[in-house]
Structures are given as structure tokens and as C-alpha cells.
Design a protein that fits this description.
- The chain is built from 9 helices and 7 strands, in the order βαββαβαβαβαααβαα.
- With 264 residues, it is an alpha/beta fold.
- Helix 3 runs parallel beside helix 4.
């Protein structure tokens, strides 16, 4: 029998690519986001703002009624905010944490009962290499992605007795609409920071625009879904795997110095 997969953030980018890929492989795919995909699609879709608890509870009840159980949840919805910490507003910071962290908590909490109904089910959280290598002028984004890795690690142990495995996928730069959708600061240069913010943002955008295709992430997710034992985290692409490895073995000060040279 085909497995049922729920994917948040399925209207574009990595989520859309993964929904299409898994649907083509014979999975029952349920896409979720605040708007429908702009491109043609043939999987099921529900509109939901994952930061709205009432909507998430209603959606989870609806999925339970329509599908009874699910086999995999992919938490992929996300957004970016860039700029200096000093120039960031409390509202902006609350917003990115609402989507990238609390939204994933809400959807996960409400769908765990449906995952528990099947044997060997999975939760795959989309983190980022930027949650391992903390990027200046994207500090809050990095913080949310580091939080997602922590979320995976705690949840993985909590859910082990129920045979629900949890893993984080760490993409590096991926060419999607993410760059265009990123909320930009009002201040990108000032007398204190000089051109540093502007240069850093330009570099980030350039890296993403020259990044890997979203399908490379979809293929990694597909492999994880089919794995008997999922690793705690899986980085996408050889170059980023090397960065994550070096980050774990090199002295923190050296890593911080290299990142300063690149983005600081
Ligand atoms: N692109 C990269 O370089 C890169 C690198 C590492 C990690 N990632 C991560 O990969 C994930 C997908 O990003 P992407 O690159 O595919 O960007 P994207 O094309 O901008 O996709 C973001 C998705 O999140 C959905 N979303 C945003 N806010 C939402 C909300 N409140 N409720 C429900 N859905 C919401 C959007 O749909 P609606 O607007 O329709 O709601 C959209 O489907 C994110 O978690 C991102 O942090 C991306």
C-alpha cells in the first residue's frame, strides 16, 4: 500500500520539488502552505498557516478524518530574515521564529498521533548548513535552524519507543524563491557598519542563486524515507558535507574567523 507523506511549505522550492518527486514515486502526498503552488501539481493540497494554532489543529483533524494515519511528516516551510541584529525589529524576529520553529512544533505536535498509528514512521525536519555555520547578518535565521537541529535531537529520543524516527536534512545554498522571499532590513548600510551588511547580503544572494537544484534535496529526503534507520542529520552535497565536517573538527575561533572573512 502506498505511504502517506505530509509536506509543509509545498507551494514552492524544496517543498514543491519534494512533493512532486514523491508523488511521481507513488506516495500519497499532502501539501500544506498558505497558498496553492503556482505550477501545475497533482497531489492533495490543504491551505494552512502553520503559525496559526487554530488552523493547524483544524487541519490535523481533517487529515485524520480523510487519511486516518500518516507515514511521514516533512517540516519544510520556512522564511529568511537578514540584516544586522542592531537594526532588527522584535516583530521581525518573532515572525521568523514563529514560522521556522514554532510552526514546526505546532504541526508536529498535532500530527504525532497520526504517525503513531502506523509502524516505523518518520519526521524529517529541514534545517540548514547555516544552523551549523552561523552566518552574520543572518543571525536570526541561523538561530532558528540551530533550534530545528535541537528539536530533532530531543524529539528523536522522546519518540523512539513509538517507532517514530526523526532526522534533520541540512541543505546548503539551493536555488529557489527563498532569496527573493527573504525579508530584507530597512538599513543595509550605515556609518557604523559601512558596506559590511550590503556586501554580506549580496554574497548570500549570489551563493543561493548559484546554488544546487531543489531536486538534490528531494532525492536525499526520498533516500531517508526508505532507510531502515535514519541518521540524526544528513547534509546535502559533498561540498557542504565537508564544511559541516570541518566545522565540527576545527577550533571554533578558526571557523568564526573564516566566516568573518566570507560574510562579516
Ligand atoms: N533555498 C536555500 O538556499 C535553503 C538552504 C537551506 C535550507 N533551506 C530551507 O528549506 C526550506 C524551504 O525553503 P525554499 O528554499 O524552498 O524556499 P521557498 O521557495 O521560499 O519556500 C518556502 C515555503 O514555506 C511556505 N511557508 C512560509 N511561511 C509559511 C507559513 N506561515 N505557513 C505555511 N507555509 C509557509 C511557503 O508557502 P506560502 O508562502 O504559500 O505559505 C513556501 O511553500 C526552508 O525551511 C528553508 O529555510 C533553504
Amino acid at each position: 500500500m502506498s505511504k502517506t507523506v505530509v509536506i509543509s511549505g509545498a507551494s514552492s522550492g524544496i517543498g514543491f520539488s519534494t512533493a512532486q518527486f514523491l508523488h511521481a514515486k507513488g506516495y500519497k502526498v499532502i501539501g500544506i502552505s498558505r497558498s496553492y503552488p503556482k505550477e501545475e501539481y497533482s497531489f492533495h493540497y490543504y491551505l494552512c498557516d502553520i503559525t496559526n494554532e487554530v488552523e493547524v489543529v483544524e487541519l490535523s483533524k481533517k487529515i485524520g478524518k480523510d487519511y486516518e494515519s500518516i507515514d511521514c511528516l516533512i517540516n519544510c516551510a520556512g522564511m529568511g530574515v537578514s540584516g544586522a541584529v542592531e537594526h532588527s525589529s522584535y516583530e521581525e524576529v518573532k515572525k521568523i521564529f514563529s514560522v521556522n520553529v514554532f510552526g514546526h512544533f505546532l504541526l508536529t505536535k498535532n500530527l504525532i498521533p497520526l504517525l503513531r498509528k502506523n509502524k516505523n514512521t518518520k519526521i524529517i525536519n529541514i534545517g540548514s548548513v547555516a544552523g551549523e555555520l552561523i552566518i552574520p547578518f543572518q543571525t536570526f535565521y541561523s538561530m532558528t535552524k540551530a533550534a530545528i537541529s535541537a528539536f530533532t535531537e530531543g524529539l528523536r529520543i522522546e519518540l523512539e519507543p513509538f517507532n517514530i524516527q526523526v532526522s534533520t536534512v541540512l541543505p546548503g545554498d539551493i536555488k529557489t524563491g527563498f532569496t527573493k522571499n527573504r525579508e530584507m532590513p530597512l538599513v543595509i548600510e550605515d556609518s557604523l557598519y559601512g558596506e559590511r551588511i550590503n556586501n554580506s547580503l549580496k554574497r548570500m544572494a549570489k551563493d543561493e542563486e548559484n546554488g544546487m537544484s531543489p531536486i538534490s534535496v528531494s532525492k536525499v529526503i526520498y533516500k531517508l524515507i526508505n532507510k531502515k534507520r535514519m541518521p540524526i542529520s544528513k547534509t546535502v552535497g559533498f561540498t557542504y558535507k565537508s564544511f559541516v565536517f570541518l566545522n565540527r573538527v576545527l577550533p571554533k575561533r578558526l571557523v568564526n574567523f573564516i566566516i568573518k572573512k566570507m560574510y562579516g
